[in-house]
Design brief:
globular; binds zinc ion; binds adenosine-5'-diphosphate; 31 strands; seven-stranded parallel sheet; six-stranded antiparallel sheet
Amino acid sequence: MTERSIQPELYSEAPATAASTADLFAEIVFDRPLDHSYSYAVPGRLRGQLAIGKRVAAPFGRGNRTTVGFCVGISAAPPARNVKDLGRVLDDEPILTPNLLRLTRWMADYYLCGWGQVLNAVVPAGVKRQAGTRTAVLLDAVPESLCPNPLPKLTPKQAAALAGLRSIGAALELRQCTRRFQCGPGPLEQLVAKGLARRLEKRVDKFETGEMEDDTDDIEQETTGPLTLNAEQLNAWAVLENAVRAGGFQPLLLYGVTGSGKTELYLRAIEEIIRQGKEAMVLVPEISLTPQTIARFRGRCGSVAVLHSHLQTAQRGGHWRRIAAGQAQVIVGPRSAVFAPTRRLGLIVIDEEHESSFKQDMTPRYHARDVAVMRARLEGIPIILGSATPSLESWYNAQRGQYKLLTLPHRVLDRPLPNVALIDLRHDRHPGGRFHALSPSLERAMRQALERNGQIMLLLNRRGFSTHVFCPACGHVEQCKFCDLSLTFHRERDIALCHYCGYEQPPPERCPQCGLGQVRFQGLGTEKLQAEIESKFPRQVVQRMDSDTMRKPGSHQRLLDAFRRGEVHILLGTQMIAKGLDFPNVTLVGVINADVGLHRADFRAAERTFQLLAQVAGRPGRGSLGGRVLVQTYSPEHYSIACAAVHDFQRFAGTELEHRLAHHYPPYQRMARLIVRGKDQDKVGEFADRLAGAFRVALDKLRSSGGEVRLLGPAEAPVFRLKGHYRFHFQLQSPHSGTLHQVLRAVVPTVRAPKGVELAIDIDPLDMV
Ligand code: ADP
Ligand code: ZN
């Protein structure tokens, strides 16, 4: 086994299969955080089977354990040292296209992890296990001219089976033979043994044979033809049409307020791509993957494969094979759909491009938007990034001309954006000491809306009953056993729960610290809000939507359907209720506390707050009834809240960019976050210091040659103890991604983490906890 650093030419110039007779060597990567491939000799018997993009089993490491790896290169050039022989080839067909190999190679470089780790994460389990397929055994009669002479003696059953096989004149599955010829497998096997029949093996897809059914495909279609575009849509379409007609890499940022007709433009672009005989990929946040969305694509776009994340393993495998075989014209799915093995990709659309669910929070810690842009570059195709509240990264890219900006500033059909009013909680409150989630103004507005038969949505982005369990006698706040986080009380389940690690315990009645106080359940969660609403509006149907009430698959959709039918008057919930939903009868939307996410230790807190408010503020008034939005806040003058109230993304973005520039944050600086964690606090802290020290030395050297990278930290992470691990972190920032990577690549391999200490590198981090 020889290590080789991975060079891109390994896969671009090597022969595609190993069919010649010269000595051949394969380059294999494993699911390990290693930045190199391993060379193996390809034994003669595997020559015809091995190809780039297939998986293999190979002896690996000192113990020569059989380990699964991916073949990423084949060459005739002998490696420097003696090499081991490959064991087996696992796939019948390559499971990765050349472009996916290039894309994953780039990801390994960019996100600083092993190529094998990326490949392993990208290929769904259903494909690796070949789920939804089986090996079929087929029988075929040997042509008479090739049969042994003289003909061996046959029993009557054998003779009948042979006659049957010959009359069919093609290979037939063994289990069908036994049914047709009404015999057991014995006589058929005898025919093979006597040289009169041949046995073949073939892998068959159970979805194709009808043995398995894909029940995800029973969604109705909505057949609306293309609409007549309005003037703003026409302007944007002129550019888009050009891009999809001409082909070639081109990133386009489609900034359009909610209901401005963005989806209509996606559909047109996709129709054009299908006309060209190519495929389109649409990435959406999981939560937007509703039957309505799917129906809209199905109605206009031919064969649409939908890659839900809750697909079963076998279904996932089936979809992957269908896509690889070119049987899907449009692929719609969340984050991981960016890796769909399309062969003739012509367009990528990424809707709600600002959504943080596009970033994966485990290795490889990729951002699907950035991977999608890279994929579009590799495939040489246009990509549309759409949003009503673009991420500042994308907005900035549009400002400096990296992305072409298309704007839809108004709703279609001159529908107004809803009127948003701020309620200042410092002044607008009920007299007396008792806490109320609803201010008098919001409560009044709710009564009015209900009198006029309108429906109401209330947003509170905190689930559970209370946010902390508190002892008024000694001040104790009940903490998670494993994290530096207070436990949330869930009254319905009667538990105190850690929202980070899932640790739960019965809620204490007396204070566990002083034993004296009766604990109080402080802070407002959706459960407590529901209780207040139910007591104030006893005659209305109130329902709650959060991850506690929506645990069963399909419950989300069922509740939304009931709400749409008017069976629910007040729907309250977390940000789940804020996404892409269109309810014509909602005349009032209330935000219970706009400040929930504003004061987090995260430089994106203002951006997140603006996005969430803009989303909810886009909900009502899509129908003819009009509607309004009331936002309760203690910080009405904060620019993220003030700008959201007047639907002014551009002003928000302008102010926020000034802050980012002043504080050296993205998008002006590229950022890497290094997190060191382990159970032994001293060891973890020591390693963090040592690693940061090594970076400081490298940065000093770099500075003398003009390079610009800043180091912040190391410090305790905002949540110091998480899931029983102590965590230190530090950040590297640079205006140039290349310099940042250069430093990381130079320093990280030189400092080894002691046993029990782990290092995680997060490039372009979103989560700062
Ligand atoms: P967005 O994706 O920006 O939220 P959509 O494309 O979903 O907007 O459009 C909002 C609604 O307006 C949809 O019901 C859509 O069918 C309709 N619509 C879009 N474009 C037009 C148009 N040019 N004329 C009339 N209705 C339109
Ligand atoms: Zn915890």
